[in-house]
């Protein structure tokens, strides 16, 4: 006959249920003996049992509440202390684990049929954006999670989760051969084991790994990974690209405007005459010769779509025009500094990589950190004004907040924005759900490791960027298409496409100012500014072709 194997928590609970009544009986008998021989007041068996249960459960006493003999007093005090200790131990050690294991028994412990499914090994911030996107798009996936608490939390969120530890159960990947793709986000050595186990199970598809140490990328590829990324370095690269125009220009193709015009960014102060006004009221084109092509709000570029577009307080305006006309607009709203050093606050793994990339691009950086270490220029608390002054925040071109704690990042953003309202502020975030809080606190751009890693992984999975992290602005020459014979600034162009016609080239010369009777000719090249999506919409709407 095969012995019944009980779970550890069940065995513990059975021991408790056996030992507790026995302890009550023994203590009740000892109490009866003490009352008879030390106090001279005999108690029966049931009276002793009642006293023991009341004392151990700390519910109080009936008629027995005072004793004269010192030994009896010590005995009662000892049993009382044991009762208090028992109350604190019985639930976390005996009762709660039992019910937790009953709950965990409902968690699936083997992979379902994996045909066409995506498998994630170990959930975390680096993959949460991609997992959420798959859930929204109803793409089938499964999360293999070795941590019980994390697995329960994922199941509560409605995610399909399998509880299993690859090292304890190597056969947990049985049936993975038919999966669409695998992503592993554990410790590097566990990632390597996962990759090899999946290949041993016959999986021939793509396996993507997120490594902690960049030196481990090559070994993981050697054991079977298709591609390996270090999320912290991906995030650092994205932050550095946002901070420096030398790494990633604010808009591609601005050379199309030659020297006739330039691009400038302006933060709209709440008291600015531009704030809350519609473009139709401001007449920036007519009065200042300026094309207001859009505004950055909460990290998103919102294209201007005609006279009803309203300028939001605190937004960053993107304007194109002649240099003298841009100076006129500067009187209405302060420009975003493009000169001055780039300040990096936080010199952890992400901050170090940001600093390295910026210096490689020829930028001047000032490093602020709470701890003195090689490479740190200013040691101090970012929340203190003296630290901000030594870090030259008010004269800096950009501040990159590379703090490792999201809560600290949100508060530091608010402090810096109050101290240096015009500085361009880019913040690192761990969890994507904290990005809106950073924007609310005053950040111009906030990027999470989940966003940037998710976009990379989504690119491999879907063949395109499914998660919008960066809206690259472009300036492009196009053939005029159906706009031949019309004025470059005719109404309706921005409303229909979201892109702005900011100038044209005629006989090799760029033009950004047009008299009222000017018309586009078939040999002209129009200069269009916008995001990649709006440029494509412009080309379809007006039958224009890029040149």
Please provide a written account of the structure:
- The protein is elongated, with a radius of gyration of 34 Å.
- It is an alpha/beta fold.
- The strands form four sheets. Strands 3-2-1-4-5-6 form a six-stranded parallel β-sheet, sandwiched between helices.
- The protein starts with 7 loop residues before the first helix and ends in a 5-residue tail after the last helix.
- The protein is built from 18 helices and 22 strands.
- The chain folds into four domains: 95 residues, Orthogonal Bundle (Helix Hairpins); 112 residues, 3-Layer(aba) Sandwich (Rossmann fold); 121 residues, Rossmann fold; 70 residues, Regulator of K+ conductance, C-terminal domain (Alpha-Beta Plaits, 2-Layer Sandwich).
- 39% of the residues lie in helices and 18% in strands.
- Helix 1 packs antiparallel against helix 3.
Q: How are the SSEs placed, and which strands pair?
A:
Layout lengths: L7 H30 L7 H12 L13 H35 L13 E4 L3 H12 L4 E5 L2 H9 L4 E3 L17 E4 L3 H13 L6 E4 L6 H6 L4 E3 L1 H13 L7 E2 L9 E6 L11 H4 L1 H5 L1 E8 L2 E4 L12 E6 L1 H8 L3 E2 L6 E4 L3 H12 L4 E5 L8 E2 L5 H6 L7 E4 L4 H14 L4 E6 L5 H7 L3 E4 H14 L10 E6 L14 H5 L2 E7 L2 E3 L13 E7 H11 L5
Parallel strand pairs: 1-2, 1-4, 2-3, 4-5, 5-6, 7-19, 13-14, 13-16, 14-15, 16-17, 17-18
Antiparallel strand pairs: 8-11, 8-12, 9-10, 9-11, 19-22, 20-21, 20-22
Helix pairs in contact: 1-2, 1-3, 4-16, 8-12, 8-16
Give the gist of this structure.
This protein is of the alpha/beta class and 547 residues long. It folds into four domains: 10-104, Helix Hairpins; 118-229, 3-Layer(aba) Sandwich (Rossmann fold), CATH 3.40.50; 342-462, NAD(P)-binding Rossmann-like Domain (Rossmann fold, 3-Layer(aba) Sandwich); 473-542, Regulator of K+ conductance, C-terminal domain (Alpha-Beta Plaits, 2-Layer Sandwich).
